[in-house]
């Protein structure tokens, strides 16, 4: 895999040129962007997946939903529908995409919509739902929309400042575009960081004067069954166990389970993978299956003996309070 990435370096140079030209045309106004007279918060990254965007959207929803009418707008990657779709009780992962369906399943009291055209999606939401805030999921590269507040995610092990363009690296946008972020959140950190380690990461990212850099780690919940029954990880020790992942970066979950003393086979699939009948038959032959919450959205009702593991962001020190304060301040602005 590493050899293949090195071989494709010339392609990455072409990709970098195209991305840079596109951003330049937006910067000088040849390509048009649209701002809105309402709070719009964008959560995104510069790399191709694996930074924790969906759990970050869920974190924002959790503390905003009590006092605001929220709408979440996503592209709905790899969904089987087209155009604008507003989630409803009969929706599923094929109609919405696994990540929007996960958000809707956890927060049925909010509006969740998908549309590849973010301008069109915002227009439909403002007409049909009339929310007082829209959260854009994975829209940092969608410059046709100017969000009022941008949250940029990057991982601790591979920050964007140390990465390179696709397909040699994981970047889908230039590191210089980080300047558009209001907050930079370093995700998947160790649970404890020293002041020197925090400063070292800030030095690597080189934030602008107006930007704050926050830090979070992943926090895994208890394995949960389709009936919402939970089990401790000790319950799975000594059992014949299969871990199924179809996410960009399963390494943190594998480490979490291994550190808990679990032994398991790992069936790894591509991100957002739709499981074939043959694959489902194989999984149903396994005595017990663990999967991610995102994969559960595509597997529920199809595999017996299935448990999923929820995940959320846990902010280090008082960084969660800083995030919430910055977002609330954004809500008070005169749009």
Short description:
With 335 residues, this protein is of the alpha/beta class.
SSE pattern:
HHEEHEEHHEHEEEEHEEHEHEHEEH
Overall 3D form: globular
The stretches of 5 or more residues where confidence is low (pLDDT under 50) are none
Question: What is the straight-line distance between the termini?
Answer: 48 Å
Biggest sheet record: 9 strands, mixed
Helix content: 25-40%
Strand content: 15-25%
- Architecture per CATH nomenclature, i.e. the level-2 architecture of the largest domain: 3-Layer(aba) Sandwich
- Counting DSSP H or I runs of 4 or more residues, the number of helices is 11
Q: Mean of the pLDDT scores?
A: 96
CATH class of the largest domain: Alpha Beta
Strand order of the largest sheet: 4-5-3-6-2-8-9-10-15
Radius of gyration: 20 Å
Tally of discrete structural domains: 2
Q: Label the structural class.
A: alpha/beta
How many strand elements?
15
CATH topology (level 3) name of the largest domain: Rossmann fold
């Amino acid at each position: 895999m590493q050899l293949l990435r090195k071989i494709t370096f010339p392609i990455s140079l072409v990709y970098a040129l195209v991305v840079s030209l596109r951003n330049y045309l937006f910067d000088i106004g040849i390509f048009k962007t649209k701002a809105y007279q309402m709070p719009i918060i964008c959560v995104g990254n510069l790399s191709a997946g694996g930074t924790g965007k969906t759990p970050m959207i869920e974190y924002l929803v959790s503390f905003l939903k009590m006092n605001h009418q929220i709408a979440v707008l996503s592209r709905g990657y790899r969904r089987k529908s087209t155009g604008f779709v507003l989630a409803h009780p009969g929706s599923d992962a094929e109609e919405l995409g696994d990540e929007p369906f996960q958000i809707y399943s956890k927060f049925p009291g909010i509006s969740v919509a998908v549309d590849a055209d973010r301008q069109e999606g915002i227009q439909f939401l403002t007409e049909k739902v009339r929310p007082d805030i829209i959260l854009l999921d994975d829209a940092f590269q969608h410059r046709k929309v100017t969000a009022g507040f941008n949250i940029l995610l990057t991982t601790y092990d591979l920050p964007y400042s140390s990465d390179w363009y696709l397909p040699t690296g994981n970047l889908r946008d230039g590191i210089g575009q980080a300047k558009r972020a209001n907050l930079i959140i370093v995700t998947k950190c160790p649970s404890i960081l020293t002041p020197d380690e925090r400063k070292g990461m800030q030095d690597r990212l080189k934030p602008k004067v107006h930007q704050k850099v926050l830090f979070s780690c992943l926090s895994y919940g208890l394995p949960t069954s389709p009936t919402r029954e939970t089990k401790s990880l000790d319950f799975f020790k000594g059992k014949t166990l299969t871990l199924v992942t179809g996410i960009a970066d399963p390494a943190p979950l594998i480490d979490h389970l291994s550190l808990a003393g679990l032994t398991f086979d790992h069936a790894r699939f591509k991100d957002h993978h739709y499981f074939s009948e043959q694959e489902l038959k194989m999984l149903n032959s396994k005595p017990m299956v663990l999967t991610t919450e995102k994969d559960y959205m595509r597997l529920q009702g199809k595999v017996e003996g299935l448990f999923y593991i929820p995940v959320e962001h846990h902010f280090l020190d008082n960084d969660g309070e800083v995030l919430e304060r910055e977002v609330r301040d954004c809500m008070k602005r005169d749009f």
